[in-house]
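Hi F.,

I've been meaning to write this up properly since the lab meeting, where we talked about keeping a consistent format for the predictions we share between groups. The idea is simple: the sequence comes first, exactly as it goes in, then the structure tokens exactly as they come out, then a line or two of notes. No screenshots and no reformatting. I'm using this chain as the first example so we have something concrete to point to.
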Amino acid sequence: MDEQYIDALKALAEPHRLRLFWLLVHVDQRITVAEAMDVTGDSQYNASRNLKMLFKAGLLTQQRQGKWVYYTLAQQELPHWKALVDSVRSLPETGFKDVTERCKMRLAMRVDNECVVGANSEEWQGKL
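Output, unedited:
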């Protein structure tokens, strides 16, 4: 039995992690903890913990770049893993509309596709 696949199912069973994963599937960009915090309204602890759990479950990859750790979708090769990602991709947008708009606004603050603004910054608060 594929234990990591079971861990992925468990990770996606939690609504906050499902929301983060859905965003990463649909926005198709890498995201930092600071950006995830601003988009979801979660604390640093919760945003970081949820992204790390998705990473440990094999759903995301992480890459350190300067002071930021970027999380992005892991490439899935096995059919059952692809089906899992596709099932999240096919969830209706209605439950995710608010966070999708917030995510687009937050990612638009990047410079050369790099996060340059920390969480809860004045720049972000001014956009809300």
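Notes:
The beta strands are 60-65, 68-73.
The radius of gyration is 14 Å.

If this format works for you, I'll send the rest the same way.

G.
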